[in-house]
Design goal:
alpha/beta; Urease, subunit C, domain 1; TIM Barrel; four-stranded parallel beta sheet; 32% helix; binds ligand MCF; binds fe (iii) ion
């Protein structure tokens, strides 16, 4: 279908006000027009039209942080007391080895769960030697594949290439400031600058990470390093993880997506704003790993904030509607105005901005890729269309498309048929 029209009771562009009885025209995989059905149908007569009863149309969700590659660990981590206890279990589980078929099958299941909960873009953390990246491409989704780096792979950094295709892009991802020493961080940021690619990192997640970066006694050096036979390393002490990383960015022109950002001081937000850092929150993972909840009041007014489920190693499922609802409930708890609207923003345009891909996706605007979902609803959409989305489930998803191609139609998932 080269050119077609999508119409719904309510179109939510996210970047502008919702449109009652709205329509979107898609041509060559892009949005070429948007407005009220009346106006759009008059301007584009006789186009093939897709219209579902009682429905809302909005940009596809951006799940900005996942570890689909670790989907096989679901239910295998067992009990743990704190973050480093969890890491210890995960490292031990990974060291035990795993069948590649199981990894790939569980990854496909993860992709299916993501698609069925309205996700059209995924920010996936992928180990360097993982052979299954083709599976990500086959999904038809928009993929940012962050190549996970640790100190032991630093020598290979110079030989790394970062592929960039229409729907698939690779970027460096030093795992975290406690697992990557200063030399690797310097090298990665230099490499990102040289290759003009954005980067990502887990940052400000646990209280132990804060202690580690303050050069205080901590569980990483006591428990994790001996387990992975890693020598500790000298680090420039810093009061907070954000300040620590800022020392490596040195005001340079680096696009960095910082994942978690639970341990954030008020002054850190000044660094975030001036360095234009992308912030990716994973609230269900944070609560499960008992590191606290993100402070959303601190982030009010900042636009580069997105949402991720993290992997099934630290979440019970990859249902993005549930992640949005969890975020929404924290917003209500913290007194954030217009919580439903904000939650939908974080799940779409905020996520695209946090990944620095807002030119391509995240909202319904002329020129952007047709990454669009359609959700049905039972009640009145007029009162609060954003709350309609927050209270939806995968069962409400009618269809989903990436670049104008369907990746999901209710009761028939294009990817599942492969
Ligand atoms: O985002 C969560 C929590 N923070 C850090 N790491 C991970 C998360 N989920 C999975 N990980 C992985 C990471 O990708 O844990 C492994 C790495 O492969 C631990 S090895 C130090
Ligand atoms: Fe993670």
């Amino acid at each position: 279908m080269e050119k077609f029209l999508l119409a719904a009771d309510m179109v939510i562009p996210v970047s502008s006000e919702p449109i009652r009885n709205g329509a979107v025209v898609v041509e060559g995989g892009r949005i070429v027009d948007i407005g009220t059905s009346e106006k759009i149908e008059a301007a584009h007569p006789r186009l093939p039209e897709i219209r579902r009863p009682n429905s809302l149309i909005l940009p596809g969700f951006v799940n900005a942080h996942t570890h689909l590659e670790l989907s096989w660990t679901k239910g295998k981590i067992g009990g743990f007391e704190d973050f480093t206890g969890w890491l210890e279990r995960l490292v031990t589980l990974k060291a035990g080895g795993v069948d590649q078929d199981l990894v790939e099958d569980s990854m496909r299941m993860g992709i299916r769960d993501a698609i069925e909960s309205g996700v059209t873009t995924i920010g996936e953390i992928s180990s360097l030697d993982f052979g299954g990246r083709e599976i990500l491409k086959e999904s038809g989704m928009r993929i940012i594949a962050f190549l996970e780096l640790f100190d032991r792979v630093s020598k290979r950094l110079s030989s790394l290439e970062f592929k960039s295709e229409d729907l698939y892009e690779e970027r460096p991802f030093p795992h975290a400031p406690y697992s990557c020493g200063p030399e690797l961080l310097d090298a990665v940021f230099a490499c990102a600058r040289e290759n003009a690619v954005a980067a990502g990192i887990h940052l400000g997640e646990s209280p132990d990470e804060v202690d580690f970066l303050r050069n205080l006694p901590n569980e990483f050096e006591r428990k994790i390093f001996p387990l992975i036979k890693k020598k500790s390393f000298k680090r420039p002490g810093a009061e907070t993880p954000m300040r620590y990383i800022d020392g490596f960015l040195r005001g340079g022109d680096i696009k960095l997506s910082a994942v978690h950002m639970v341990q954030v001081a008020a002054e850190d937000m000044e660094i975030v704003r001036s360095a234009d850092i992308g912030v990716i929150l994973c609230p269900r993972s944070n609560v499960l790993l008992n590191v606290g909840k993100p402070n959303l009041r601190q982030m009010l007014g900042y636009e580069r904030v997105g949402l991720g489920t993290d992997g099934l190693s630290s979440n019970s499922d990859l249902d993005f509607f549930r992640e949005i609802r969890f975020l929404h409930d924290i917003m209500v708890e913290q007194g954030i105005p217009q919580s439903a609207r904000m939650a939908v923003y974080f799940a779409t345009l905020g996520g695209a901005r946090a990944l620095f891909i807002e030119e391509r996706t995240g909202s319904l605007e002329i020129g952007k890729s047709a990454d669009i979902i359609c959700v049905d609803h039972e009640g009145e959409v007029d009162s609060d269309p954003y709350f309609c989305i927050v209270s939806s489930n995968p069962q409400n998803l009618q269809f989903s498309m990436v670049g104008g191609n369907f990746v999901y139609r209710k009761d028939s998932c294009a990817f599942c048929e492969h």
